[in-house]
Design brief:
The complex is a heterotrimer of chains A (218), B (256) and C (487). By secondary structure, chain A is of the alpha/beta class. Chain A has helices at residues 4-15, 43-56, 69-80, 113-116, 169-172; strands at 60-65, 84-87, 103-106, 121-124, 128-130, 135-138, 155-161, 165-166, 182-185, 190-194, 197-200, 207-214. In chain A, a hairpin with a 4-residue loop joins strand 5 (128-130) and strand 6 (135-138). Chain C is of the alpha/beta class and 487 residues long. Among the domains of chain C are: 58-137 and 208-321, Rossmann fold, CATH 3.40.50.10420; 410-477, no CATH class. Chain C has helices spanning 11-18, 22-44, 49-65, 67-80, 91-105, 116-121, 123-129, 139-146, 163-177, 189-206, 232-238, 259-270, 303-307, 323-327, 329-334, 345-356, 361-365, 375-379, 386-400, 405-418, 421-433, 447-452, 465-477, and strands at residues 84-88, 109-112, 133-136, 209-212, 216-218, 223-228, 242-248, 252-253, 278-283, 293-299. In chain C, the strands form 2 sheets. A 6-stranded parallel sheet of chain C has the order 1-10-7-4-2-3, sandwiched between helices. A 4-stranded mixed sheet of chain C has the order 8-5-6-9. In chain C, helix 3 (49-65) packs across helix 12 (259-270) and helix 9 (163-177) packs parallel to helix 10. Chain C starts with 10 loop residues before the first helix and ends in a 10-residue tail after the last helix. Classes of the chains: A alpha/beta (218), B alpha/beta (256), C alpha/beta (487). Chains in contact: A-C, B-C. Chains B and C meet through helix 1, helix 2, helix 3, helix 4 and helix 8 of B and helix 1, helix 15, helix 18, helix 19 and helix 20 of C.
């Protein structure tokens, strides 16, 4: 008996008898007349657009400078009543310089979901952010840790540097590496499953706080 | 200008008043109207029910009967869409099945000359005020094929707004289908009726005396529901409103 | 265990019952109208929507035209990234593969991300037969599973339930499946979401195996994409050791760049959001981050048959956004269950009969479950001309499916009459003369009864239009016999 693979491919090819043989490149490429961005904003205006769109989907947005970041993060954790925070191993040490009396869980392959389930907050950076859609993208790269770090705790604080903000999806994709596992986050966990009305907060973090740091990175 | 009236089989058999109104209206606007007697049905019911081959002779007949006219004007968005959208498809399928190119050529030749009445008035004649007088409250249901396939947009509304004495009331949920759908009405009577009842509920909520449309097949369905329920709203084709004047109130038009 | 769609009556019969269900009608009207207005606003934000839609359509068509090429490319890329690719020609093969993979892990339960493909193949039932319990983790799927119900919408399978019913289902059934509903649970949607969070959290934390579908597979990179809102997807895709994704072969897009089109089209069309809360993208496996075993099951199950119909194949462009359901007046009144398939609404009416064939009565009735109003086509983000495909399938039904002999005979005689205008004119006149006999309702069975059960028949005029025209024409031009001279 031939394999399912061979049978499926044979059926597909038979179904496409009307298509002249040859590689896909023999067909004209798909048209791409859409915009590469819907905003011309740059600089502070782009950051403002990101903040507006994040807030529209119920993320809490803070704007600060590099110098004030440690103080702000300490305030956010305090205001949330957090007693423990999970962080990636390569978190810039100065971020938590003003945070005291807080249990820190450092991400490592041995850290379990069960352990993270008992942590109040997670603090990470990101790979980039998309202003138009109010999206932050994590790719397990620098200052981000593994995917579960930002998933299991109920409170996620994400720090974005100004130079990480892309205007739009078409401008963001070329900056991302497809081989890395990615999580795109637009606001806290939500559902529309009850009468198609949006309710925030199901399985992912119910509180998402985004800190946009303006000025050059340190 | 000389145009052919493509009245449609439904109007010919069941709504002759609409046909008379179209003739009256167009002649009043200085158009020379002909009614080629060889016309029967465009084949829409057959085509939309899955009988493509049975539609082909009717399409050929249509192309033959209406050959030579600059415009073929029809008071039905649905039948206009049949000719404009589906005739070229019939031709393409015939070509793909290697059964000749003649049908395709005929279809492509007829399709662009076929225009719906309100399109003809607004786009070809360039009028919105057709000199009509109709002292009644009216709400307008835009039938789906006129709305989505022909893209009639607000042409019917612009024509109605220009009618003296007429009060136009917006129909809630106007763009929703009335549930007629040709053979859908009899193949799925429960859903068709449910859709129609919602449509007449919306029409009644406007308090209008007249439920106006540009497709008598939809109005036949809605009118049937209204009469069964003894409701006071009267379904009326837009041509009959546009044909009415102070002097010429044909028997089709409601008493003032 | 959950029910299946087997044994459902054909659409008109099922709809005759469901349209009378006032609560169902109210739930559906409320939900679909809420989302359709939001979708319209979300789409209106982008002034290049038409261009995005055109690109989406072209990319999908191009992919389908070279599907064999892209399937092989995806297989190679996934394998190179550490995944294992399986091929399943039909539901039975896919279920067998998944069950064997789960067994090989030694586990007897799996957590599931909402997936249309696994609904389609009846995976949960197949796993149950092997002693494996599948826990649905999407809120709406959970509601359906707890209620031993059937899904009725692509995006929101429990759309037919209102908040009060959901509260009752949670109170009544959560305890049987795991952590009971909290004491004093109300019908507040936030509380209901919280109850689901608590109920499922323990399952996520202990799960060793997850089953998902995917919204897209990028052929060039082997990347899978899951678009979701709640975070249950992230839980399933991240925490377990083994991940099995069952994905239809039409879900491919050629390039990474293509995602910029579909990730703009899908969220706005589906949940009316600029971007859905969570999108997960993964390529094979990543050391010490996420599942260490990844299996991709490529599912045909009627897709290659669908591809063979040159008009019908456009249904394979579908990205499962469900915008067409939310604007469909037939879906709104009949409800999703009447379609007898996990794919309800307009897209279901063209997809189900193509995937399953036209041989059974339910599937042959689906192409007629539409008034051809065209609202579905207007909102479709990949421009599937659903009315065109419906008509195409009707043609196949009258040719292939049993039970259309009488209708064909009637169409043939009508066709003859309509091609002979002189006879046709005489028939119109005869009908006019008999108008005095016309009843408001017809006692006869068949189409006339179906019409006149709820609607009066139109009042026949004394004379057809053509008689008036001929008389007038005679007066004007002084010649006669025009009608008789007609061909």
């Amino acid at each position: 008996m031939t394999s399912a693979r061979d049978r499926i491919l044979a059926k597909v090819r038979a179904a496409l008898a009307d298509v002249p043989p040859g590689p896909p490149d023999a067909d004209p490429p798909a048209t791409r007349a859409y915009r590469t961005a819907h905003t011309e904003a740059t600089g502070p205006a782009l950051l403002a657009l990101l903040a507006e769109n994040l807030a529209d989907y119920r993320a809490v947005v803070h704007q600060t400078t590099s110098a004030r970041l440690p103080e702000l993060l300490a305030e956010i954790l305090r205001a949330h009543g957090s007693r423990s925070v999970a962080v990636p191993a390569d978190l810039p040490p100065e971020w938590l310089a003003a945070t005291h009396d807080m249990t820190r869980l450092i991400d490592s392959p041995d850290l379990t979901a069960e352990q993270l389930n008992g942590v109040d907050s997670a603090l990470t950076g990101c790979a980039l952010a998309i202003a138009e859609t109010g999206t932050i993208v994590l790719d397990a790269g620098p200052a981000q840790g593994r995917r579960m770090l930002t998933l299991v705790p109920d409170h996620h604080i994400c720090v974005i540097r100004a130079d990480q903000v892309a205007a739009s999806l078409p401008q963001a994709l070329p900056r991302l590496d497809p081989t890395r596992p990615q999580t795109w986050i637009s606001g806290p966990s939500a559902t529309s499953d009850i009468e198609l009305e949006r309710v925030e907060g199901v399985h992912g973090p119910r509180r998402l706080e985004v800190v946009v740091v303006s000025g050059r990175p340190q | 200008m000389r145009v052919a009236l493509f009245l449609t089989c439904v109007n010919d058999a069941l709504y002759p008043d609409t046909g008379r109104a179209v003739v009256t209206l167009l002649e009043r606007l200085g158009v020379d109207v002909d009614f080629p007697a060889g016309q029967t049905c465009c084949g829409q019911p057959q085509y939309n029910t899955g009988y493509r081959r049975e539609t082909e002779p009717l399409a050929r007949r249509m192309a033959e009967v209406f050959a030579g006219y600059e415009y073929v004007v029809t008071p039905s968005g649905s039948c206009a869409a049949m000719v404009r959208d589906n005739y070229p498809r019939l031709g393409a399928r015939a070509r793909a099945e290697a059964s000749g190119t003649e049908l395709g050529r005929a279809a492509e030749e007829l399709a662009p000359r076929t225009v719906e009445l309100t399109e003809f008035l607004v786009d070809v004649l360039g009028v919105t005020d057709v000199g009509a007088y109709f002292p009644h409250t009216v709400t307008y249901h835009p039938s789906c094929h006129g709305l989505r396939l022909l893209g009639l947009g607000d042409r019917p509304l612009r024509l109605l707004r220009a009618v003296r004495g007429l009060t136009l009331i917006e129909l809630p949920g106007a763009e929703e289908c009335c549930g007629f759908g040709g053979t859908f009405a009899v193949k799925n009577p429960a859903v068709s009726t449910a859709m129609g009842l919602d449509k007449i509920r919306n029409a009644l909520s406007t308090g209008a005396e007249v439920l106006c449309g540009a497709d008598n097949s939809c109005l036949m369905h809605l009118g049937g529901l209204l009469r069964r329920q003894d409701r006071p709203v009267r379904p009326l084709h837009i041509a009959e409103i546009l044909a009415a004047t102070e002097h010429e109130r044909t028997e089709t038009v409601m008493p003032a | 265990m959950s029910r299946t769609f087997l044994g459902m009556p054909p659409f008109p019969k099922a709809a005759a019952v469901s349209t009378r269900n006032a609560r169902l009608r109210a739930n559906l009207t409320r939900a679909t109208h809420t989302i359709r207005d939001k979708r319209a606003r979300a789409v209106a934000e982008l002034d290049d929507w038409a261009e995005l839609r055109q690109s989406g359509r072209e990319i999908k068509d191009r992919t389908l035209r070279h599907l064999d090429h892209y399937l092989l490319q995806a297989e190679q890329a996934v394998t190179a990234a550490g995944g294992t690719v399986h091929w399943a020609a039909d539901a039975a093969e896919a279920n067998r593969i998944v069950a064997d993979l789960v067994r090989a892990t030694g586990e007897s339960e799996v957590v599931k991300v909402k997936s249309m493909a696994t609904q389609e193949i009846g995976l949960n039932e197949a796993l149950a037969a092997e002693g494996i319990t599948a826990y649905e983790t999407d809120l709406a799927e959970l509601i359906v599973q707890l209620a031993d119900d059937l899904p009725s919408h692509i995006l929101v399978p429990a759309i037919h339930r209102n908040r009060g019913e959901i509260r009752d289902i949670f109170r009544g059934s959560m305890a049987r499946w795991g952590r009971p509903a909290p004491e004093g649970l109300t019908d507040n949607p936030a509380e209901l979401a919280e109850a689901a969070r608590l109920h499922l959290r323990e399952k996520f934390l202990r799960a060793k195996v997850a089953v998902s579908g995917a919204n897209f597979i990028v052929a060039e990179t082997g990347t899978l994409v899951v678009v979701e809102s709640e975070g249950n997807g992230r839980m399933c895709l991240t925490l377990p050791e083994t991940l099995i994704s069952v994905v239809g072969i039409e879900k491919l897009v050629p390039s990474w760049q293509d995602l910029e089109v579909f990730l703009q089209l899908l969220p706005r069309s589906s949940t009316a959001e600029r971007m859905n809360p969570y999108t997960s993208l993964w390529t094979g496996t990543t050391p010490s981050d996420g599942p260490s075993n990844f299996h991709l099951v490529l599912l045909d199950n009627g897709r290659s048959d669908t591809l063979a119909d040159q008009v019908g194949r456009q249904a394979l462009r579908c990205i499962r956004c469900s915008a067409c359901l939310n604007v469909c007046p037939v879906y709104e009144r009949a409800g999703g269950h009447a379609y007898g398939s996990p794919y309800p609404g307009p897209i279901g009416a063209i997809l189900t009969p193509q995937l399953r064939g036209l041989q059974n009565e339910v599937d042959a009735s689906l192409p007629y479950a539409s008034s051809l109003c065209g609202a579905c086509y207007e909102v479709c983000p990949v421009a599937i001309d659903i009315p065109e495909v419906l008509v195409q399938l009707r043609e196949r039904v009258v040719e292939q499916a049993p039970g259309h002999r009488l209708e064909r005979a009637a169409m043939k005689s009508a066709g003859w009459l309509l091609d002979h205008p002189a006879v046709y004119s005489a028939a119109l006149r005869t009908a006019g003369k008999a108008r005095g006999l016309q009843p408001r309702r017809l006692p006869l069975p068949g189409p006339a009864k179906a019409w006149s059960d709820s609607r009066d028949l139109p009042v026949l005029p004394e004379r057809p239009f053509r008689d008036w025209w001929n008389r007038r024409d005679d007066r004007n031009h002084g010649h006669t016999g025009k009608d008789d001279a007609a061909r």
